[in-house]
Amino acid sequence: MAFDPKDIETQIVEADVLIIGGGTAGCLAAVEAREKDPRLKVVIVEKAHIDRSGCLAAGMNAINAYLHPGETPESFTAHVRADALGLIREDVVLASAREINTAVARVESWGLPILKDGNGNYAARGRWNIKINGERLKPIIADAARRAGADIYNRVNVTDLLIYEGRVIGAVGFGVRDGAFYVFLAKSTIVATGGTAGLYRPNNPGSAHHKMWYPPFNAGAGYAIGIRAGVEMTSFEMRFIALRTKDAIAPTGTLALGFGAPQVNAKGERFMQTRFGHAGGDGAATPLRVYGPTLELKEGRGPCYLDTRGLSAEDVHRLKASYLDMYPGIVLYWAANGIDPSKEPVEICGTEPYVMGGHCQAGYWIDPDRSTTLPGLFAAGDVAGGNPYKFVSGAWAEGIIAARSAVACAASVGAVKHDDKCTVALRARVFAALERFEKVGDGVAPFEMEERLQKVMDEYAGGISTFYEMNEERLLVALKQVGKLKGQVRYLIAGDLHELMKAHEVIDRIDVAEVLVKHLIHRKETRWPGYQTRLDYPDRDDQRWLKFVNSRRGPDGMVEMLERPYMQIVPGDRYLPPA
Amino acid sequence: MSVITDKVKCNGCGGLDEPQCVKVCPGDLMAMGEDGKSRIRYTADCWDCMACVKACPRGALETRLPYQLALYKATLKPKVKSDRIEWTLIDIDGEKEEFVIRTL
Ligand SMILES: Cc1cc2nc3c(=O)[nH]c(=O)nc-3n(C[C@H](O)[C@H](O)[C@H](O)COP(=O)(O)OP(=O)(O)OC[C@H]3O[C@@H](n4cnc5c(N)ncnc54)[C@H](O)[C@@H]3O)c2cc1C
Question: Into how many domains does chain A fold?
Answer without folding.
Answer: 3
